[in-house]
Amino acid sequence: MNPEWKIDTIAVQGGYEPRSGEPRVLPVVQSTTFKYEDAGHVSKLFDLEAAGFFYSRLANPTTDAFERKIAQMERGPGAMATSSGQAAITLAILNICSSGQHIVAASTLYGGTYNLFSTTLPKMGIEVTFVDPEASSEDILKAFRHETRCLYAETIGNPGLNILDFEKFSAVAHDRKCPLIIDNTLATPYLCRPFELGADIIVHSATKYMDGHATSVGGVIVDGGRFDWGCGRYPELTEPDESYHGIRYLNNFGDLAYIIKARVQLMRDLGPTQAPLNSFLFNLGVETLHLRMQRHSENALAVAKFLQGHPLVSWVCYPGLENHPSHERAKKYLPKGASGVLTFGIKGGMEAGRKFMEGTRLIALVVHVGDARSCVLHPASTTHRQLTEEQQISSGVTPDLIRLSIGIEDAGDIIADIDQALYLSQTQHA
Ligand SMILES: Cc1ncc(COP(=O)(O)O)c(C=O)c1O
What we know:
Elements (H helix, E strand, L loop, with lengths): L6 H7 L25 H8 L14 H14 L3 E5 L2 H10 L7 E5 L4 H13 L3 E5 L5 H6 L5 E7 L11 H10 L4 E4 L4 H4 L9 E5 L13 E5 L11 H4 L10 H5 L3 H14 L5 H11 L2 H20 L4 E5 L9 H7 L7 E6 L2 H11 L4 E2 L9 E3 L11 H6 L6 E5 L5 H14 L6
Helix pairs in contact: 1-3, 3-12, 15-17
The site of pyridoxal-5'-phosphate (PLP) has 15 residues, from helix 4 and helix 5.
């Protein structure tokens, strides 16, 4: 890759640069395994002394190209694709955290992540302390313990849409010699590059904007390559891994230590691999990510402004609006746009919300965001329904909240659909 390339060029051409006579389009290498004639070569691959492919659970050429593209876009030295965003988050944490240890996380998280942290990680012996992301540095620091391994947050909270105070979070994490792990799903590397704002590890649900067409579930972990794993607190990266011939990740792989460990230890043992066909589809999606994110952001801002003046709407939450509590941060950290997701409160609460969802025609009721097609959802009765009301409120969900993922259709058509569904929501027999 030419290091001068801008992100739009990387989106289109990064990751895969064919040589003379090779396919112009990234091929799908639908093969579990790879043939060799020389046993010595295979041993070198196994011993991580040579780069190459031998089994697609660990690495595959199509997936490798997608990983390279995302690492280039985020400006990190390496990335690893996973079978889902949830798998990316789980592996990102398990790579540096085991039973008896602890993490600190912003409370304003995607519902699936909240459940992982509040239910499944504790069952594995990993405790999680949730903090209000607007709390002071001093209060967030109080949540840290000797055994705390990372601080975790989302660039744009889903569905609360609060924009993270990166300076505060990175300063707090680094003060305690912990990496800051950021879920950059809703922002995408086009709108925000967390490594430039102090993050150390980035995770994505590729299922959302990277795919962009609602075809595939997948995730990515990106290593920023800058965290000081040699600070004395992360023996899993500095001491020999007896399950891999006593390899010492930091010593052998330097700025790729974290992501190589994730691959050769956790992907090897747990196996949530990204299917090559999905990597092909994600790569195809990312080729237009920069164009789509511009249009998603423009359309969402137009819809947010429309909703702000609507008599049947009690509040609108979109970081691109001047009255949004995170607007100054949105301007600072997301100068190219505030992405395509917005929420609003419908007059008539829960019942009107249900009628609104059933009343849209162009906008589809689906449990998804980031699609080129506009989507609507009522989180309190769907994605966040496993949470208690208290947990829902703490992750930013109220009973009247409608979440819209604004697509890249004509903004006027989207607005007309919302308008008619709002009026329909107030009728008796909608
Ligand atoms: C912000 C965020 N992170 C992670 C995930 C989980 O990703 P996946 O559904 O690909 O497992 C989602 C899913 O909606 C999400 O919105």
